[in-house]
Design a protein that fits this description.
Layout: H1 3-24, E1 45-52, E2 58-63, H2 68-74, E3 98-101, E4 116-117, H3 123-126, H4 134-147, H5 164-170, E5 174-175
Parallel strand pairs: 1-3, 4-5
Antiparallel strand pairs: 1-2
């Protein structure tokens, strides 16, 4: 082979190798485009009336899913001596609800009518009702904690152990604030 033929062959081989490298190279990823994040969904809010032994009693606005402890915090926190042991701090709240934080020596829900308030009474207070012992009182509190506040007195029928006769005995002794 002549020198000229060798140069042409080498040029063809080099061209083929270069073309192979060009065609076989990995594809470039598409440019990264960062889209604007969608507007966050506004958080729904509850308005709750917090009264009693808190620093700033009145209406507070809290997020849906908040609990009594959150409402107390939104009202500036409990005042020294507040009876927090008689309040279920983990109870979920609903819009328009009233939360009473008792002070030293106050019952869980001071009322002039003398009735036991189903949505704030402790198990010990519920035991004062006719036919309600420790087991049923604990069941009423557990039901309230799991399902939220009672909407009507008749909702007691959903608690295991409360039937029509027991509800009739309690009906005039309880209330829903």
């Amino acid at each position: 082979m002549e020198r000229r033929d060798l140069i042409i062959a080498a040029a063809l081989v080099a061209g083929a190798v270069a073309a192979g490298l060009w065609v076989g190279r990995p594809a470039q990823p598409p440019p990264l485009v960062i889209a604007d994040a969608p507007d966050p969904t506004p958080v729904a809010a509850l308005t709750v009336h917090v009264t009693g032994w808190v620093r700033n009693p009145g209406l507070v606005t809290i997020a849906v899913g908040s609990r009594i402890a959150d409402a107390i915090a939104a009202a500036g926190g409990a005042r020294p001596g507040a009876g927090l042991d008689s309040v279920n701090l983990a109870q979920p709240l609903t819009d328009g609800e009233r939360v009473m934080i008792p002070g030293p020596g106050d019952p869980a829900e001071p009322v002039a009518d003398g009735k036991i308030h189903l949505n704030s009474a402790t198990a010990a207070e519920l035991e004062e009702l006719p036919g309600v012992g420790p087991v049923l009182a604990a069941a009423i509190v557990a039901y309230r904690e799991q399902h939220g506040p009672f909407k009507t007195v008749e909702d007691l029928l959903d608690v295991t152990g409360v039937g029509e006769a027991k509800l009739a005995a309690m009906r005039d002794l309880v209330s829903l604030p």
